[in-house]
Amino acid sequence: MLKTLSWAFNSMAWRGLVYTVFILHFVLVCQLLLLQPLVSALDGKPGNAAELFESVSQNIKVKRYSEALNDLNAAIETDPALSEAYFHRASILRQLCRYEESEKSYKKFLELKPGNSVGEKELSQLRQAQSALETAFSLFDSRDHTKGLEYLDKLVLVFSPACSKAKILKAKLLLAAKDYSSVISETGFILKEDENNLEALLLRGQAYYYLADHDVAQRHYQKGLRLDPEHSELKKAYFGLKNLLKKTKSAEDNVNKGKLRLAVEDYKGALALDPNHLAHNVHLHLGLCKVLVKLGRGKDASSSCSEALNIDGELLEALVQRGEAKLLTEDWEGAVDDLKSAAQKSAQDMNIREALMRAEKALKMSKRKDWYKILGVSKTSSVAEIKRAYKKLALQWHPDKNVENREEAEAQFREIAAAYEVLGDDEKRAKYDRGEDIEDMGMGGDGFNPFGGGGGQQFTFTFDGGFPGGFGGGGFGFNF
Predict the structure, then answer these.
(1) Which of 28, 137, 274, 397 has CA 20 to 30 A from 364's CA?
(2) Between vectors from CA 230 to CA 227 and to CA 232, what angle results, nearest 5°?
(3) 40, 48 Cβ separation under 8 angstroms
(4) pLDDT-derived band of residue 431, with 50, 70 and 90 as boundaries?
(5) pLDDT in the model for residue 55
(6) What is the pLDDT, as a whole number, of residue 17?
(7) How far apart, in whole angstroms, are the C-alpha atoms of residue 169 and residue 174?
(8) Which of 134-148, 219-233, 396-410 has the lowest mean pLDDT?
């Protein structure tokens, strides 16, 4: 029994030993096959070394930099004196802007190949790119966006075309310069290489946000937050956008419900969230202007519409609404100017033409004499009140009672008489109130002289029921 067990044990041990030898042999064969180009290079077979570097070159073309570096590192580990491997590794690291690692490899290459002009040239380019990248970051901090972009485009991305730091910085500079379309283009290239690049997702989302393409912006923020739910900048951008859309919708809803004062507060609140979001704020300013016009707050409305026009000078509705706001503040000429400009931009819009006609009529009325003001009565005064005011002023300004300032008195008396000529007649007063032209309504000017032709004529007033005494002894009288 013991012999049987011993034999079985020995048999199993023998088979295990054979199996182990087989595995080791298999691994060795695989290593030899996989590292043959490297081993061949060590054996002085230039054809196989050329194949290695051709493989590295192909990996670089398709931007598989990690695979290329792994091959080169393996080659260097196999043959530390393989100078070309150091050169290729240095070049790849330079393109990736891993400058410190790249410089070490260039120096190692130049140790093996002293005075090599190509190596020395690329090392110089590395140092230029490194310095330019540092300068570009400084220019970004100092908000010199144009010069920062020049350093990146003319130096960094020329010598380090695969530098992700430089590409992200370029997108940031373009965003700060408000070149949103270029940001979308640049970040698109980055995301094509790395679809999970959080910084590119954030910058691309911000570009869409500032173009007021909020749905697309939100999708970029959400994708980034799925990858990193605690990313502070993505969270800030995402919730900031949600808050803006919520405020905007609340304002619009309150307008539709007729809650205009609440709408004003919502519009102001939305505008305060991001003063730099011009593509969206232009509509917030316009919405606020329209509500303020409805509330009769002409000055505030005019200011809001001006803000909208400062952003978009071709915004027709803002021009029309500002014209309406100026009518409320009795800025007749300003209203006519705005509405005339709007009518020229949209000649077929009858609503604009009607608004312009109202403004022109108001301007015309503003230039005529205010007979109510001259008599010191309101537009709602009765005929009796107008007559009493006229009597009082006629007596006050009769030239014979104002010998020392006769010329002024005559001018005042003409105005008073002309005002009464219109307001004392129901038909003329109605036409005047409607803004219609009235023949002889300018009788208060040079064409009307209640004193007759001679400047030195004397006047006598005879009121109903008699007037105690007369002014002078002439034969000109007024009957009330």
Answers:
(1) 397
(2) 110
(3) yes
(4) confident
(5) 85
(6) 45
(7) 9
(8) 396-410
State which amino acid sits at residue 339.
L
3-class SS at 359?
helix
- Calculate mean pLDDT across residues 240-269: 97
Q: What CA–CA distance (Å, rounded) separates 2 from 120?
A: 77
Chain CA centroid to CA 172, Å: 16
Choose among 387, 381, 454: nearest CA to 416.
Answer: 387
Question: pLDDT category, 371, cuts 50, 70, 90?
Answer: confident
Kindly list the structural domains of the chain, giving each domain's residue range(s) and its CATH number in brackets, ordered by start: 46-229 (1.25.40.10), 275-367 (1.25.40.10), 371-480 (1.10.287.110)
**In the chain, what are the helix, strand and coil shares in percent, each to the nearest 5?**
75, 0, 25
Give the number of other CB atoms < 10 A from CB of residue 102.
24
What is the structure's pLDDT at 35?
Answer: 40
Query: Closest Cα to residue 435, out of 380, 359, 381, 376?
Result: 359
Helix ranges, 312-447 (H) = 316-328, 332-345, 350-367, 371-375, 383-396, 406-423, 426-433
Q: What is the DSSP string of 234-281?
A: HHHHHHHHHHHHHHHHHHHHHHHTT-HHHHHHHHHHHHHH-TT-HHHH
* Residue range 323-340: mean pLDDT, rounded: 95
CB atoms within 10 A of CB 314: 8
Report the distance separating Cα 109 and Cα 89, nearest Å.
10
Higher pLDDT, 52 or 444: 52
d(CA 87, CA 92): 9
Task: State the Cα–Cα distance between residues 177 and 116, nearest whole angstrom.
Answer: 42
The phi, psi pair for 35, rounded to 5°, reads -100, 15
Cα-only R_g, the chain: 45
Q: What are phi and psi of 275, to 5 degrees?
A: -60, -20
User: What sign does the dihedral 434-435-438-441 (CA atoms) show?
Assistant: positive
Token pair, residue 350, equals 């009858």
| 287: amino acid identity, one letter | G
pLDDT for residue 382: 92
Mean pLDDT throughout 198-227?
97
Q: For the residues of 121-171, what is the DSSP string, one character each?
A: HHHHHHHHHHHHHHHHHHHHHTT-HHHHHHHIIIIIHHH-TT-HHHHHHHH
Residue 336, number of CB atoms within 10 A of its CB: 21
At residue 445 the predicted structure's pLDDT band, cuts being 50, 70 and 90, is: very low
Whether residue 142 is predicted with pLDDT greater than 70 in this model: the reply is yes
CA–CA distance from 47 to each of 32, 37, 51, 56, 393 (Å)? 17, 9, 6, 14, 119
pLDDT averaged over every residue in the chain? 84
